[in-house]
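Example record

The entry below shows one chain as it appears in the dataset: sequence first, then structure tokens.
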Amino acid sequence: MTSTPVNLLSLRSNQSADRPFPATLQQGQLAVSYGSSDPGLYFEDSAGNIRKVGPNHYGAAAPNTGAVGQTGNSTGETWVDSSTASYYMKVWDGSTWRKVGAGFADSANTANSATTAALSSASIISSGVAVTSNLPASSPQGTIMYQAAAPSGLYVYVGSAWVPV
């Protein structure tokens, strides 16, 4: 018996900000929007919500501002807001964009010029991101930390190394 290969294709669109409507997906089904200004991989969760899986959006306007498909954003979706001199990483909480570590970044004017004077090693700020003077040698995959000492910035642990975000 000869078998014929079958190509399985996810729902896909080359238009930016073309998010799928919940009615077009089944739970767990994938959809891809590969338009260059707002690409993403989407799926429907068990509650019927559309979730976006990366990448992090960067720009002065929030992601999906000029929606082609479904309007709105996915809970947990991230955005680096470059609309002001103090860039902020923001997370969609289901109703509004929340600044990540806003108290820390606001008091320092910008996260990259933050000082360590008031920080103890591995302090936890309201966003849940750990702040440390120096990153530990290793950490669980996907851990996000802010290193206050030079080179300061937000890092994620990938593979066996810390990678700047």
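Notes for this example: The longest strand covers residues 153-158. The CA atoms of residues 4 and 103 lie 58 Å apart.
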